[in-house]
Amino acid sequence: MDSNIVLPVNITTYLHEENGVKIYYPQVTSLDSREVQKKMNDTIVHTVQQLMERQYQEQDTDSFAQMIGTYELKTNERNILSITFTNYAIRDMAAHGLTFMSSLTFNVKTGQKYELADLFKPNSNYVEVLSRIVQRQIVTRQIPVLEPFSGIRPNQDFYVADKALVLYFQQYELSPYYVGLPMFPISVFQLSNIIAEDGPLGVMATNS
Length: 208
Known about the structure:
Strand order of the largest sheet: 1-2-3-4-5
Shape: flat
Largest sheet: 5 strands, mixed
Helix content: 10-25%
Number of strands: 8
Structural class: alpha+beta
């Protein structure tokens, strides 16, 4: 096998189930570094637990008629792993439930968890650049907003999917409930002047 080939990491799905709660979550297996593997898996479990806790806090209850947690692999190549986690819960007799989403993007060689700022060059004004792109998409896609859009947060939720950065907002954060979780895909080539070459977007932008 060519030593330059970078294979996807192995993922195993686990299920936590109790009293109407079903949470499916991933764990990374077979990494060369057990220390890196444990670091990533601990972060994954913590993220899943945070979503569950947020449901109890936001809906002000200690039990649900139903809670379902799932995940999706968005990128698993070139030593980059990007995962989204979704948690839906509904109380007894409630008209509708709530969905929360979280995401993690890792370097599988080091275990580093990337924040949004890590994807861009220092002093790149990435918040302003991304905010302008999101604003244009809001207008062109006619996305309803609860109040005038003032820009993204410096630590805005995101994931990496193929050759795109996807920014997203929680329910009620930007739009009415019926819109769900608004998502804004942005091509890495649209950001080529400001992305960090050694970060996830820089890696995805190469053709090798």
